[in-house]
Amino acid sequence: MNDLSSDSHRQEVNPHLRQILKKKMDLSLSQMVKGILQGDTGMLSRAITLVESTRAEDRNLAADLIRECLPHSGRSQRIGITGVPGVGKSTFIETFGSYLIQKQNRKVAVLAVDPSSQVSHGSILGDKTRMEALSQSPLAFIRPSPSAGSLGGVARKTREAIILCEAAGFDTIIIETVGVGQSETTVKSMVDLFMLLLLPGAGDELQGIKKGIMEMADLIVIHKADGDNAKRANLASADVRRALRLYPEDPREWTIPVELCSSLEETGIEDIWMDVEKFFRHGEIKGFIQENRKEQAEFWLRESVGELLHDSFFQHPRVAKQWPTVKKEVIEGRISPFEAARSLMSSFTGDNSDLSV
Amino acid sequence: MNDLSSDSHRQEVNPHLRQILKKKMDLSLSQMVKGILQGDTGMLSRAITLVESTRAEDRNLAADLIRECLPHSGRSQRIGITGVPGVGKSTFIETFGSYLIQKQNRKVAVLAVDPSSQVSHGSILGDKTRMEALSQSPLAFIRPSPSAGSLGGVARKTREAIILCEAAGFDTIIIETVGVGQSETTVKSMVDLFMLLLLPGAGDELQGIKKGIMEMADLIVIHKADGDNAKRANLASADVRRALRLYPEDPREWTIPVELCSSLEETGIEDIWMDVEKFFRHGEIKGFIQENRKEQAEFWLRESVGELLHDSFFQHPRVAKQWPTVKKEVIEGRISPFEAARSLMSSFTGDNSDLSV
Asked: Would you call A307 and B341 a contact, using CB atoms and an 8 Å cutoff?
């Protein structure tokens, strides 16, 4: 179940995508909002496609749509999942998501943040294949990462997709990091709980995980803890617990659980769910879930301002014209970066007011 | 030797600082430039004080000064030094700097980046006390971190201080990270060589170093490798070498040296210097020193643009007026961060043009 689920002409990707966009434009705003609130996943898919569009007219409609859906959002548990490539994130999400639907009566949306992703039918099909069982459930909604140049763009679209999924009644939003590098910080800034999957192994292998990522985790899972890996998984678990003891005490009074899990043998899933439940109960009592969401909202306000400022600056005709020359002069050391920036700013603001630094 | 070295009334800090600023304003631009180019460290101090000033008239004069000094800058070796508090950065810089002056015929400027620093006479005196021998040499110039709210502000001032020090004939610029956290990245972005000092110890203790910091290092020094620490220092060295082997190969074809050093016993200093010399020779042949400086210049251009845009946005009367209300609405979930940002942008640009995101 994804944005192309109603597609019957899979061989013609781009023309079909245009057709979907066209169909979407024919829909009135109120039809779309109504469909989403009724939990129509086809409509949800179209709405997310709209939100991901970069066309100016789509942006305006998308803004209206988000505004209508906003009052119906915010009531889900937002869970981020990260881990190095090969740790089995998709398999885990498939197993964990299916458990949530079957045993916990949940509606699960899976989104992804991958700043490197390109528009390709392959990756969409790939996603379907990756989470086959989950994608067949009417209570699941799986959406690959929006394709976009900048992480900021991907992040905004994912944040808006969360709002739409929540308005459509999904009570568990799982956000997967796909790219490596910065996307962890981005996902962390849009979820309530951040889960780190680790491979069985210890010592040197753990050093492969950026320390900063460990510090972000609210819950750590040693994945693929099955078969020949069982002993190594226990070692890894001990190693992680030892590393965690070196951290300063968590002001939230939350002890980070370290669980062993096998998606293959379906072990550990229930323990992980109990940890998640405990985290949200504890977080709501202590108030840090709400507090975190407020901080995230302000963070995203500032990020959005920064992004819009950046875009309007570099798209400004005078700035765009001067930029290559000024950049060359700075790189060759003929003008200092600060003076160059001041000069470009004068072009941007259209006067010579001396902006204090 | 620092910005208050000519001060004979140490008890009256603030009035005296004002007096220095007043004196400085009486100097003509050409007098200042001439003094700096002649290597007058008193004049250099005043120039840096000017660069650190936030007053609009000072900013204009500072911009002129930097412009005049820029053609005389760029010919030093810029070395960043970092390490956890307690690793002995000041003692190391004192010993290393004195060695450079006495044995290598160098002129050494020591700057610091500490976004948390406040204007206080204490810290200035503290610096003098910390590097007593070095501060007494006429071939050394020691300057504490500019005090400023934002890391961006501290960074700009330090970058400008580098230009002034180079114009004054200092051929070795040492930049020390003082605060913890982000300042390492900032210092890395303004130096040619980044040196990491580590304490003797191994395993768990090494985990206290953020992995990202290890990855930034061009040269690693196990400091305080003396007395009872000798054995632990050897263990640490082996551990670091082992950790380094896990890294992907350096495209610059540079093998990161790991040296043992005692500032107390003055051992290892010469080896470190030979590594530094080798790094610069290798880097100039391979071209990565020059390439790195070009990338840094563009990075600082973009950073400066971002900072100026941010300031002009938040200082804009309409934006400043709307900000508290809009922020509150975003935090309370009544308006999405993206819509709020678009609305503030309209106030900023003064029209309703739909800026594409």
From this structure: yes
Round to whole Å and give the CA distance between B82 and B176. 6
A128-138 pLDDT, tens digit each = 457 888 988 99
d(CA A342, CA A166): 44
Q: What is the pLDDT of residues B295-348, one digit of tens each?
A: 999 999 999 999 899 989 999 999 999 999 999 999 999 999 999 999 999 999
| Contact of B157 with B148, CB cutoff 8 Å | yes
| B305–A163 CB contact, under 8 Å | no
Residue type, A280: F
d(CA B307, CA A351) in angstroms, rounded, equals 18
Cβ separation B339–A163 shorter than 8 A? no
**Strands lying side by side in the sheet with B193-198:** B140-142, B108-113, B172-177, B77-82, B193-198, B219-222, B258-260
In the stretch 46-75 of chain B, residues with CB closer than 8 A to chain A read 54, 56, 59-60, 63, 66-67, 70, 73-74
pLDDT of residue A24: 53
Which of A301, A313, A315, A319 should one mutate to test binding to chain B, selecting the residue with the greatest count of B CBs within 10 A?
A: A301
Residue range A19-68, pLDDT digits in tens: 666 555 567 899 999 999 999 999 999 999 999 888 888 888 999 999 99
Is the CB of residue B12 less than 8 Å from the CB of residue B4?
A: no
Q: Which amino acid is at A245?
A: R
CA B225/CA B211 separation, integer angstroms: 22
